[in-house]
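User: Please predict structures.

Assistant: First:
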Amino acid sequence: MESKLTHYADNYFEQEKIPGAAIAIVEQGEVMYEHVWGIAGEDKQRVTNQTPFALGSISKSFTGLAIAQLISEEKLSLDYYISDYLPWLQLNGAEDHITIRHLLTHTSGISSYDGLKVADQGIAEQIKLKQIVQRLSTISLTNNPGSEHQYSAANYLILGAILEEVTDKTFAEYMKHTIFSPLHMTHTAADKDSANRTGYRVGYQSWFGFPVQSTVPYDNSGAAYSSITSSAEDMTKFIQLFSGKSSPILNKYTEKLYKKESEVYYGYGLRHTKLDSGKDIIWHSGSTPDAHAEFFYLPEEDWGAVILTNKNHILEETSLPLLKEGIIDIMHGIEPERIPSYFPSTQLILCFIMAAILLWSIFLIIRRKVYQKKKPVLIGGFLSLICSSLLIPILIYSSQSPWHSISAFAPDLAFLIITIVGLLCLHGIICIVTYFNQPARKHKELGT
């Protein structure tokens, strides 16, 4: 089975051009499989089972664990409101209606877009989360609290601020001393300096499917929802927590951590769904601009796994869950399905559009005399200018993502879109100038 797992994983990593990765499987509280692949960072260090990777939204699972602990210690209550803990936060009155439970289950009514607006800020200095949370003061809820699930980074950012308020510690300090240390997670961190000390190296953004060293900085304000770093070895200790064979200090909180309240449920930073076989699976995926990870645990079979990779792109995020499914199939003695290879079709279509606009502009310059005073040229010019001004706002609205998120998670698309906007603007100017430009000979005739 180990050789089959390794062969399947290596084929995927090679196919998807993943620079570095690590996999670990824990069964009945014991590590039964570990595998590493490739390199990490500009210095091309070989990946080991102690190499830290960015966890992305799996960070929410650790935040959920910390909140569960504070609830058990009666420092927090599930049904108390934001205003009970953060009296300085004003959310247009919503602070008196959103509870801790709403934040944990993403049912606060805060939109995904509003969460992304305050996410991935790239803040290098150590700051109190209060400074970022206060930026939410202008938002409006899209749903009544408790009425609808709407995944938003803002929920866990607020939970991080509440944790800091009630413990009088920074989020990173609390996680290190109260969560990571009891679990003996020595290569896990919730701030930039600590991550660097444990050996963390930035990952790779994907350009047309190829890895390029990331230019996105570590965000010290994002640990509560995205920027915790950890190694495969450390994540096995987190999985062992679910088996009740890890830290005796934290085991008592595990039941709250993955308590299930419906067939499809999100609570305490974990998702609860069912496999095709009908068995329960507790899991969370995580992505940053330069990393993608999967964590899961099957309580009925008492085994789980973590997959860490250091390359990402928003259009490539569907493939890693397929690797997770393949690993589950292999563990169940089923032949896994082949994972389709990623092809950058969207990027190539944008390149074609870009080339078409450029060639048409050049053609207009060369044949400008033919198209002088042609109304379709003038109309086309104004349409090009209108399209250039509307393209990015339409993309932001349709994707429900702010531009800084698009450019971070899809840098090649952002570059192509900006280039197309510039070409449309240039094309519009060329069309208008072509229409109004008078032949030199006519100017001379008018002057005689």
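Second:
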Amino acid sequence: MTPVEPAPAPAPSAGTPDPTAVPDPAAVPDITAVPDTTAVPGAAGLTHPRRDLDELLTHAVRFSVVAALSGVLKAEFGAVRDSVEITTPMLSKQVALLEKAGYVEVEKGRVGRRPCTWLSLSTEGSAAYARHVAALRAIAGLDH
């Protein structure tokens, strides 16, 4: 049995790169290079408004809770849960994260014999919310 020789590859047509050609190393871009940020306007301070977004408030439920609390001195837990349309366990989890960050204050008490929990936005939480909303408005082009 004689080995079969492969047919010669057709010559590439004009304007079509030769797929078997070895690229010139000088012509291959270095994708590991760090970009030169000095050529980008404002890059020294990196001023895109997304940098002002609060990482904790990028979660829709936490943002909604803080937004609900932003217009009131304090709100009863159940009222916030109902206005944000989430379950009690979900609100508890998100409030715990916001409280740990210092954004929300939790006050427990009683109304008659019924236990009650009130939520309020701290000064730090109010400032974080204002910065986050300002960043969203700037990104959307609504800050004029």
